[in-house]
Design a protein that fits this description.
124 residues; mainly alpha
Length: 124
């Protein structure tokens, strides 16, 4: 059986529409949050082990790497929440037409970034 369908293997040249980008970021944010669970469990256990453990966990959280990790995980939580609400609306039949799907995808993307930056400024 001969397949005459064209094959496009240059993946770096494929341009996804914005709803596709939001979908992939929704999955990435979910994976990031799942992978962060054991790390935060270990930090929590270390913080509860005593005053020295709490000081070392607090030092790690206040370091530049810790702040960056918390910022990324904050974005991950917000993006996953907003994209999940968007998908719930899509499942209910709201915003299925192409212009509205693009508009809600851009709104989800920008809102998660804006809320992350606002949270970073307020919590600093």
């Amino acid at each position: 059986m001969v397949n005459s369908r064209p094959v496009f293997l240059e993946l770096w040249r494929i341009r996804l529409p914005i709803p596709g980008v939001v979908s992939i970021l929704h999955r990435v944010s979910g994976v990031l949050m799942v992978l962060a669970i054991p790390v935060f469990a270990a930090l929590f256990a270390q913080a509860l082990s005593g005053s020295a453990g709490f000081a070392s966990a607090a030092a790690l959280a206040s370091s530049a790497f810790g702040q960056l990790a918390l910022l990324v995980l904050g974005w991950s939580l917000l993006h996953h929440l907003l994209a999940g609400l968007r998908y719930l609306a899509l499942d209910l039949g709201w915003g299925l037409d192409r212009p509205m799907a693009r508009k809600t995808a851009w709104t989800t993307l920008y809102s998660a970034l804006a809320l992350t930056l606002i949270g970073a400024v307020v919590l600093r």
